[in-house]
Structure formats: structure tokens, C-alpha cells
Amino acid sequence: MVNLLPAQLVLSASSLFVNAPSDSISSVSLERWKELHRQVGGRLYLGAPFASPCFANASLGVSDPACSVVQHGYVDELTRSNAFGAFINTQWETCQATGAQCLLDYTNPSNLEHVLQTKCELGSVSNYYIDVRDPEDVRAAFNFSKSTNATLVIKNTGHDYMGRSSAPNSISLWTHNLKNMSYIPTFVPEGCTDVSPAVTVGAGVQWGEAYAFAESQNITLVGGVCVIYLKGGGHSILSNTMGLGVDRVLQFKIVTPDGHYRTVNKCQHRDLFFALRGGGGGTFGVVLESTILASPQVTLQVVVVSFSLNPVLTERLWTILVDNGIKWANDGWGGLANSRTAIYITPTLSKDDAASSMTPLIQFGQELVDTQVEGAQLRVIAFPSFGTFFNFLVNSEVAAVGSSLALASRLIPRNLFANSISRSTLVSALTAANKMSPSLIILITPPSSFPGDGMTSVTDAWRTSIFHITVVNQWNWNATKADKKRQYTLASSAIDQLRKITPDAAYVNEADVYEPNHEMSFWGKHYARLLRIKRKYDPEHLLDCWHCVGSNPKSSRFACYL
Ligand SMILES: Cc1cc2nc3c(=O)[nH]c(=O)nc-3n(C[C@H](O)[C@H](O)[C@H](O)COP(=O)(O)OP(=O)(O)OC[C@H]3O[C@@H](n4cnc5c(N)ncnc54)[C@H](O)[C@@H]3O)c2cc1C
Ligand SMILES: *[C@@H]1O[C@H](CO)[C@@H](O)[C@H](O)[C@H]1NC(C)=O
Ligand SMILES: *[C@@H]1O[C@H](CO)[C@@H](O)[C@H](O)[C@H]1NC(C)=O
Ligand SMILES: *[C@@H]1O[C@H](CO)[C@@H](O)[C@H](O)[C@H]1NC(C)=O
Ligand SMILES: *[C@@H]1O[C@H](CO)[C@@H](O)[C@H](O)[C@H]1NC(C)=O
Ligand SMILES: *[C@@H]1O[C@H](CO)[C@@H](O)[C@H](O)[C@H]1NC(C)=O
Ligand SMILES: *[C@@H]1O[C@H](CO)[C@@H](O)[C@H](O)[C@H]1NC(C)=O
Questions:
Q1: Does 329 lie in the same domain as 210?
Q2: Atom 4 of ligand 6 has which residue's CA nearest to it?
């Protein structure tokens, strides 16, 4: 990061990457930029697309060493989350509507032959960003946005599947460097009296870091694969028995758009507590830290079955998963599966009880191994802690990073697992969806056995569901606008197979960009209350994001969506 003087900031921004000339950002006076620069302790920087070093001197035929760093880390999740100008899914660095972008070929980032014939443009990467370190930074940014009309966005790791952490012609609050972490064995939320063991994490802490810390403290934290997904839900393979990420948040510290730094928990600012536990990021303020419940270390029983792709076996596997859906949810299992793998895990059963509960899957795996089916594997393993299991899992399951993709998802309710007719309807729908989108994943992550405390705003459908299904369709750097639209449509049509047989319910963080009836799908009956809370804390609408609570679909911040 180069700490430029404010005058240079303005000059370089307009010379390097040209955006629409009439936007509010470019009409801000130099004096006002200088003031902001001072207010945020000099931590105001120029945004630049991740791959820009590869284009910088291309016309001179010179390669910049910074480009090889980009090429090596192009599809690496940590490299991307450490770079302000990078997003995990690359279309959110581009302007899909105009084609302005600065991308490499993710299938072969070392090949720049065609790439360098294109221009490097800012796309949806914010023109400026503040490396947020304290509440004053956020307060100054809200004040700046109020007086200049500049579009504000909040970016943490850039994992958002719906592009909510970037916007054209904007200034960004980057919370990635808030990395503090501490274990408090006797945490008492401010203004409350009850005590629980807890961990306080800065907004920028990622799960890899949190799990390693939990391991060192002999405790269990419940979360996702890579980021602290607290605001919108946070499903994990332990959620069935231990709850969603939002169920386990005890306190947030947040700067609301009115400039107040608030400590939010079940005893004070209860409305915000409810809103932040499921209402989504980027909506109610900038969270600087969260305190989450810590549980004792758990022993985990794990069953893994896998085989080489074979549609007949896929259907048999999914039939077993669906036939046993209710029993395994009640027995405390979570997991993930796709067309050729199933991983199940439980923190509540002994070794023998686990083996007995999983008999149908273990027998299936054993049969595949005995008959020497290609790639067949069966593993029945115990892990002494979640951290040791996580290290095993991250080596086997990797989500797409560094490409552009369309995701769509659906929550599958318990009642579809209840009788043989509905079960076979479900398996057929899954198979049909998988034909259109081969990367279908069955996430057995809903909190099916975890009722919650009535203070979360995620749709209640989470607690009556057994599967969370996702599909993904990708495209490469030089896809045409029509190609991209086709992939979005394909993902939507694949999930339509499940929409046809389920009520409107989907995970706000992993939904179709074009989710129909999204307010109902993400929040169910909680939406009206969430909207009142949004209006109370952000009356001037300084924050907004795609399909977020109170979102204004006509806002210019959405100009790059297709
Ligand atoms: C590879 C991959 C794996 C995933 N695995 C899981 C999983 O296992 N479980 C799960 O539940 N989800 C998972 N997700 C989805 C994930 O929950 C969302 O992408 C989530 O929004 C990421 O949060 P982030 O803040 O790091 O991302 P960002 O893209 O930086 O931000 C997401 C949203 O939150 C807002 N925001 C960011 N920081 C703040 C802040 N400090 N205060 C207020 N608002 C903020 C942004 O404005 C934006 O609206 C996964 C996503 C990817 C790409
Ligand atoms: C590339 O260009 C930048 C500025 O445009 C310059 O600072 C840098 O030294 C150049 N790199 C190389 C390898 O020439
Ligand atoms: C897209 O780029 C790749 C190289 O990255 C090239 O092989 C391919 O021909 C290009 N496709 C189109 C349609 O231009
Ligand atoms: C908000 O901005 C105005 C105009 O620049 C400035 O006068 C005022 O001091 C700022 N207030 C805060 C709380 O930063
Ligand atoms: C900001 O927008 C409001 C409402 O559109 C307008 O009245 C005001 O003049 C704008 N302020 C600036 C500095 O552009
Ligand atoms: C992080 O921890 C350090 C050292 O304990 C402390 O000085 C700092 O204020 C903390 N930062 C935040 C944002 O909480
Ligand atoms: C964690 O448990 C191990 C093994 O029981 C023990 O050696 C270690 O001291 C414990 N660590 C903490 C921080 O309690």
C-alpha cells in the first residue's frame, strides 16, 4: 500500500482509471479529501484492481515483479482476501454491464498473451478505500458520505457471492486488518449479568485463524470454511447441534450511520442485536468486533464415502442421504455431499452409536470398496477436536476462487423427507438440478436440532430444513455479456427444480443474485421488523447493498449488475 498525499490521490485516480465523469466522487473538493485523509490518520488509499500490475508496463514490453505475485496467488483464497482490489469471485471486480475489467485467465494466469491486449479498467473496485482501524475512521467516512453524497461500501474479505462489497465510483471501508482475537473464559455482555466463555474477534479475523486460536485454547468455535460469516447466518457442519454463527454471537461493537459507536447485545440495543444476527452485512453499520460463544473441545465421529463420478452411484448415494435425512438430523449429524462424496460428522455420538446410526452409508461405502468400484473409499474416523478435522477437510474440499460464477441455492424443509413419495420427488429434483449444474453441493448444515433463542432474524425456515443446496456455474475472463447472462440463467433454472417443490427460503449470503421474492426467502416473517430497524439507524440511507434490507434497486451503486 502506497501512502499517497491527498493531491496525488485525486490526480492518480483520474489518470489511471477513468470512471463516469459526473459522479459524486470526482466532484469532491481537494480540501475535503485532505480533511478525510487527516481524519482517518492518513489511511486513505487508492483502489486498484488486483491484476493491475500485470497491465501497468505492458505497452513497454516490461514485466513488473508484482505481476508474478498476482499470477501465483490468482486462485488462492488468502492472497485474494489480503488484497483490497481482489474479490473471491472476480465478476465483482468488473463492471459486468459495461465490460470494464482487469482480469487474467483464471485457468492459466501465467498466460498473458490475449489478456494484455485488453485495457485494465477499475470496474467495480472502489476508487478509494480506508484501511479501518478504529471507530473514528468509520465516523469520518459516514460524515464524508453525508456531506458529499459519495457512495460508501464496506469490504471485509470480498467473499460475497452477490457483489455486496464492491461498487463503481465508491469509497470503501476495508475492515480486513481488524485482526484482534482474545479468549475470555468468563465473558459478561455489557449491561448483562450472565457469564459464558467467549472469544472476541476483530471483524477481519478469518476462520483459519480463529480455528487455530481455538485449538490453542482447547475450545470449539462454530463457523464456516474461511470467513467469520456472522451477520447473515453462518452455517457450518456443526450447526445442526451447535447452531448457526448468528446463534452464537453474544455481542457486537458497531458504528451505526448516525456516527455512534455502540455495544450491542441482548441487554442493550436489542433491536440491533436481532438485526445483526441474520439481517445481513453492509446494512445496519460497520461492525468492528464480535464476541462469540466458545464451547469445550468436542470429539468428532466422521464418516467419508467417495467414488469416481458415476451417475448411477450418485443417485444411490443421494437416495440414502434423503431416506435417512430425518434420522441423521435427529441423531446430530451434519455434513456435505456432492455427486461423488459424502462427509458426515457428529459431536454428540460415541464411536459405536455413530457407526450404528450411519450403518446405511457405511454399508454402501463398504460395498463400493468390496466390488472395487473405481475410486471407492470408505473412512470411519474420529477426530479429537474441530481444528484437527478442519485441517483434514480443507485439503479435500475447495470452493471456486479467482473465477467468475453464478450461484443459486435453496433450503430443503424437513417435511420433504417425511414419506417415500416426497423423498423420491426430492431425489428426482436434485438429479434434474445436477444435470443443469454439475457442481451441485448438498450442505447438511441447517440448525435442524437447534431451536435458537428467538433473537435471530434469519428466516425461520433454517430451523425446519435439513439440506441447504447450492449450485454454481462459472465463466472465464473473456466471456461475453450474453455468456454471463446465460450462466446466471442456468444456475437459476437448476435451482428452479427445487423451487418448484419447496417454500421460498434461501441463505442471504449464498443466494441467486436474481432470487425471486428475496425478502421472504432470506428473512421470512422478520422482514418488516428488520426494515423498521434499518430506517431507525440509517435514516439517510448511507448504506445499501444488493437484495439487502431496505435496498433501493434504482441506486447507481448497482449500475454494474446485469
Ligand atoms: C469460498 C467461499 C466459502 C464460503 N463458505 C461459507 C460457509 O462455510 N458458511 C457460510 O455461512 N457462508 C459461506 N460463504 C458465504 C459467506 O458467508 C459470505 O460470502 C459472506 O458475506 C462473507 O463475509 P465477508 O464479510 O468476509 O465478505 P465481504 O464480501 O467482504 O462482505 C460481505 C457483506 O458484508 C458486508 N460487510 C463486510 N464487512 C463488514 C463489517 N465489518 N461490518 C458490516 N458489514 C460488513 C459487506 O458490505 C457485504 O455486504 C462462503 C463464501 C465463499 C466465497
Ligand atoms: C512499471 O511502471 C511503474 C509506474 O508506471 C513504475 O513505477 C515501475 O517501476 C515499472 N516497473 C517496471 C518493472 O518497469
Ligand atoms: C479467451 O481467452 C483465451 C485465453 O485466455 C483464448 O484461448 C480464447 O480463444 C478466448 N476466447 C475468446 C472467445 O476470445
Ligand atoms: C463532519 O464533516 C463536516 C464537514 O466537513 C465537519 O465540519 C465536521 O466537523 C465533521 N463532523 C465529524 C463528527 O467528524
Ligand atoms: C446530495 O444529494 C442530495 C439529494 O439528492 C442533494 O440535495 C444534495 O445537493 C447533494 N449534495 C452534494 C454535495 O452533491
Ligand atoms: C487490539 O489489541 C490491541 C492490543 O491489545 C489494542 O491496543 C487495540 O486497541 C485493539 N484494537 C481494536 C480495534 O480493538
Ligand atoms: C490444552 O490441553 C492440552 C492437553 O490437555 C494441555 O497440555 C494444554 O496446556 C491446554 N492448553 C490450554 C491453553 O489450556
A1: no
A2: 180
Give the tens place of pLDDT for each residue, 79-104. 999 999 999 999 999 999 999 999 99
φ/ψ of 468, rounded to 5, equals -120, 115
Distance of CA 73 to the CA centre of its chain: 20
CA distance 308 to 329: 27
Number of structural domains (the chain) is 3
DSSP reduced 3-state for 249: strand
CA of 231 to the centre of ligand 6 (A): 22
Name which residue sits closest to atom 25 of ligand 1, judged by CA.
Answer: 156
Q: Which numbered atom of ligand 3 lies nearest the CA of 115?
A: 5
Share of the chain above pLDDT 70, in %: 93
C-alpha cell at 182: 482474545
SS (H, E, C) 307-364: CCCCHHHHHHHHHHHHHCHHHHHHHCCEEEECCCEEEEEECCCCHHHHHHHCHHHHHH
Is residue 317 included in any domain, yes or no? yes
> How far does Cα 215 stand from its chain's mean position?
23
Residue 379: what pLDDT? 97
* pLDDT tier for residue 19 given thresholds of 50, 70 and 90: very low
Enter the pTM of the model.
0.94
Give yes or no for residue 218 CB within 6 A of ligand 7.
yes
**Dist. CA 344–CA 335, nearest whole Å:** 4
Triad 106, 108, 114: Cα angle to 5°:
90
- Rounded distance, CA 271 to CA 464, Å? 24
Instruction: Report the pLDDT value the prediction gives residue 310, as an integer from 0 to 100.
Output: 95
Between CA 465 and CA 479 the distance in angstroms is: 36
Residues 125 and 202 in one domain: no
pLDDT of residue 224: 63
Is 260 in the same domain as 329? Answer: no
CATH classification at residue 289: 3.30.465.10
**Which run of H or E residues covers position 290?**
strand 286-293
Ligand 6 contact via 178 beta carbon (within 6 Å): yes
Give the pLDDT confidence of 491-519 residue by residue, as tens digits: 999 999 999 999 999 999 999 999 999 99
Q: Exposed (0-12), middle (13-18) or buried (19+): which is 1, by Cβ within 10 Å?
A: exposed
Strand blocks (E) in 79-225: 128-131, 151-155, 170-174, 181-187, 196-202, 219-220
CA of 44 to the centre of ligand 4 (A): 17
How many CA atoms does the CB half-sphere of 554 hold within 13 Å? Answer: 0
Residue of the CA atom closest to atom 11 of ligand 4 = 143
Ligand 7 lined by 197 (C-beta under 6 Å): no
130 and 32 share one domain = yes
Q: Check whether residue 148 and residue 185 sit in a common domain.
A: no
CATH code, domain carrying 371: 3.40.462.20
| Position 556 in a domain | no
The answer on 167 and 74 residing in a single domain is: yes
